[in-house]
Design brief:
The complex is a heterodimer. Chain A is mainly alpha-helical. Chain A has 8 helices and no strands. In chain B, 72% of the residues lie in helices and 0% in strands. The chains are: A mainly alpha, B mainly alpha.
Amino acid sequence: MPSPLAPGRDYARPVPDRAPDASVESPGASPEALLAGLRAEGHARDRAISELHALLLRAARFELNRRRAALAHVRGEELEDLATQAADDALMAVLAKLDEFRGESRFTTWAYKFALLEAGVRLRRRAWQNREVVIDGERWEELADPGGEVHRALEQAEVLDRLRAAVDEVLTAHQRRVFIALALNEVPIDVLAERLHTTRGALYKALHDARRRLRKELGR
Amino acid sequence: MSVVDRILGPAGPEVSCEECFELLDRYVDLELTGADPDAAIPGMSAHLEGCPACREDHESLRDLVSSES
C-alpha cells in the first residue's frame, strides 16, 4: 500500500532483520505542548507534526511487537514497513480529526488509538494473508469442551444442537454467514471486512443482531 | 465462560465498534486514574467482551499508556 505521506519517508530508517523496536523512548514534549504546536503555524507546526509522527510510530511498533507471535513468519524489515505505514495513516487521521479532540482524555492517549488501530488492522490482515477464510463451513463438532464432566458435556451438546438449528432457521443469509465466520470459525473481523469489502462496524452490527436473535430463540 | 456464552456474546446493551473507538481514549484514561469507566461509559465493557478486535485495541492502548506513567 503506498504511503499517503510522501514526506513520511523522511521518517523511515533502515532496520535490521528483527521485530520493530518498541523500546524507543517517548518524545519529550508534554501532550499539551504537542497539541498547541499542532494548532500553531509555520515551523512550530512542522516540528509538532514530526514529533507526533514519532509518537505514532512508537505506538505502531508497540502494537506489532506485542503481537509478533501472529507474525512470526514475517521479516523484520516488513514489520518495520507495516509500522511506518500505520504511523503515516494514523498521522493523516489525527490531523484530519484534530478539531474533534475535546480534551476528554490526554491528547497522547487520543492520538495513540489511531496508530494502534492502523497497526492492529494491518497485523491481522497480514497474518491471514495466505490463509483461507472459511465463511460457510461450520465447525460445530470442534466446539465441545474436552475433558468436562459427562452431564455437562451432554447439556452443552444439547444446547449446541439447538443453537445449530436456530442458526439455520432464524438468521438471514447474511447474518448466518457473518455469525459462522466470526463467532464459530473465529476469523478476525478486520480480515473478513477486507474480504467482503465492508467495515468492522457493519460486520459487528450483523453479528450483534444475529446473537440477539439466537439468544431469544434459545431463551438465554 | 462456556463455549455457548462465548459464541453468543454479551447479553446486555453494548456500544458499537464506531462508538467504542470514539470513546476508547476516555475509557482508558478513566481506567488508569482509578475512576469507574463502566459507570461513565455504559455498554463499553460489554462490547469489549463481545468484539475481539476492539478488545485488543483496548488492551494495547491501556498497556501503552500505562507503560509511560
